[in-house]
Design brief:
Layout: H1 4-11, E1 14-15, E2 21-27, E3 31-32, E4 45-46, E5 49-56, E6 60-65, E7 69-77, E8 80-85, E9 91-96, E10 107-110, E11 115-120, E12 126-134, E13 143-144, H2 147-153, H3 158-163
Antiparallel strand pairs: 1-2, 2-5, 3-4, 5-12, 6-11, 6-13, 7-10, 7-12, 8-9, 8-11
């Protein structure tokens, strides 16, 4: 039986700065040269990266954004709520899970530059998902939101921002 403790130990997962646990499972050995990337990237990037990501109980992944598209994949546990704020301020929520009749989806992509956060839909369970990033993830492309700044930018979403920001 899958448990959070088993997954953390089996995959040697560690804490993620945004919340939850993760382990990188893939990093392409090939690079996209900086000159072939959009200006928002500061250097070369791998073609793609992938991680396993685990949220347990009432933990959440705090609002953050990256410079690449990030495709999420559902594996096990309960649905994971992913809250996104587009650059134009549009808020959307996706349920990543396996109950299609309840509107869940097995995978979806968060576009580059969107602020996003996530949490389990049941505080007594866990959500085990994967994330694939292209061009590949680099921590220099990662920005953790500051609650006050995000509320100033998107005051209409202050409740969700307070729910999913630690600062």
């Amino acid at each position: 039986m899958l448990t959070p403790e088993y997954l953390i130990g089996h995959f040697r997962m560690t804490r993620h700065p945004e919340g939850g646990y993760f382990v990188e499972t893939y990093r392409s050995h090939e690079l996209v040269e900086r000159s072939a990337l959009p200006e928002r990237f500061s250097g070369n990037r791998t073609f793609s990266t992938a991680i396993y990501f685990l949220l347990v109980g009432d933990e959440f992944s705090s609002f953050h954004r990256i410079k690449s598209d990030e495709t999420w994949h559902f594996y096990a546990g309960v649905a994971c709520e992913v809250v996104m704020i587009a650059p134009d301020g549009t808020l959307s929520v996706v349920l990543l899970g396996n109950e299609l009749e309840k509107g869940h989806c097995f995978q979806f992509t968060v576009p580059a530059g969107y602020w996003f956060a996530s949490a389990c839909t049941n505080p007594d369970a866990f959500s085990f998902v994967g994330c694939t990033v292209a061009p590949g993830f680099d921590f220099s492309d990662f920005e953790l939101a500051k609650q006050e700044e995000l509320i100033t930018m998107f005051p209409q979403h202050s409740k969700k921002i307070k729910d999913y920001c630690r600062q």
